[in-house]
Write a structure and sequence with these properties.
Layout lengths: L16 E5 L14 E5 L10 E6 L2 E11 L2 E5 L9 H4 L2 E2 L3 E7 L3
Antiparallel strand pairs: 1-2, 2-7, 3-4, 3-7, 4-5, 5-6
Length: about 110
């Protein structure tokens, strides 16, 4: 059975809604460990202050964008004492961002 292919006239999905379970305490008290978050995969022009999921060495992590310059973002956890973030691994590329959190509202 052949599956239909997208033609240029058809609209491809512009974004996806993803669900991830949060591990760790880096985003407490706002997002607690084992909480579910809903993520929009389509990125917006400005990521400043958005909570994002990004891939770091093959592992999805959740952090807040505190600065964006060109193709790089500086990321921090809300719980600075219990967070491994840009203070330890430097800036992350925008291309490594999977999406931004849309629920819970942060």
């Amino acid at each position: 059975m052949k599956l239909p292919k997208y033609s240029k006239k058809q609209n491809k999905p512009k974004s996806l809604i993803l669900i991830r379970r949060v591990k760790g305490k880096s985003m407490m008290p706002l997002i607690k460990p084992n909480s579910l978050v809903f993520i929009r995969s389509k990125l917006t022009a400005s990521l400043d202050n958005k909570v994002v999921i990004f891939s770091h060495h093959g592992i999805d992590k959740i952090k807040r964008v505190v600065d964006q310059e060109d193709d790089y973002v500086y990321l921090l956890g809300d719980n600075l004492i219990n967070s491994s973030d840009s203070r330890s691994f430097s800036r992350a590329s925008v291309a490594s961002i999977v999406g931004y959190v849309i629920w819970p509202r942060v």
